[in-house]
Amino acid sequence: MRNYELMCIIQPDLDETALNGVLDKVKGWITESGGSVAKAEVWGRRRMAYSINNHREGQYVLMNVAMNPAATSDLERNLRFQETIMRHMLSVVGG
C-alpha cells in the first residue's frame, strides 16, 4: 500500500448533496480496490487560472488515500469518465 494525494476539481454548479454523492462515488472506487481514504478536505469553490468547460470556478477537494499502486490506473480511468470531475491529479506522498 502506498500513500497518495488525490486533488479533484469538481463542477462549481453542484449543490452540497450532489457534491457529497460524487465524493462518495470516488471513495467507493478506492475502497472497492482494497484502499482506504484517510482524510477528505473540501476546500470549497475557488477561482481557476483558466476556464475549463466554460467554468471559471471549481470546487476543490483534497483526499489522502492509501491504495495498491496497481489499482491507480483503474481509479484514474473512472475519474476521467466522471463528467462532474473537471480535473484530477493523483500523486505519491513521501516518494
Which class best fits the helix and strand makeup?
A: alpha+beta
How many helical stretches?
A: 2
Strand order of the largest sheet: 2-3-1-4
CATH arch. level architecture: 2-Layer Sandwich
The largest pleated sheet is described as:
4 strands, antiparallel
Q: Give the N-terminus to C-terminus distance in angstroms.
A: 12 Å
CATH superfamily: Ribosomal protein S6/Translation elongation factor EF1B
Return Rg in Å.
13 Å
* Total number of distinct structural domains: 1
The low-confidence parts are none
List how many beta strands DSSP finds.
4
The level of helicity is: 25-40%
Strand content: over 45%
CATH class: Alpha Beta
Query: In one word, what is the shape?
Result: globular
The CATH topology name reads Alpha-Beta Plaits
The arrangement of helices and strands along the chain is: EHEEHE
- Average pLDDT confidence is 94
Q: Explain this structure to me?
A:
This protein is an alpha+beta fold and 95 residues long. The chain has a single domain, classed as Alpha-Beta Plaits (2-Layer Sandwich). Helices cover 28% and strands 49% of the residues. The protein has two helices and four strands. The chain has helices spanning 16-32, 72-81, and strands spanning 2-10, 36-52, 55-67, 85-92. A four-stranded antiparallel sheet has the order 2-3-1-4, with helices on one face. Strand 2 (36-52) and strand 3 (55-67) form a beta hairpin. It is globular, with a radius of gyration of 13 Å. The two termini are 12 Å apart.
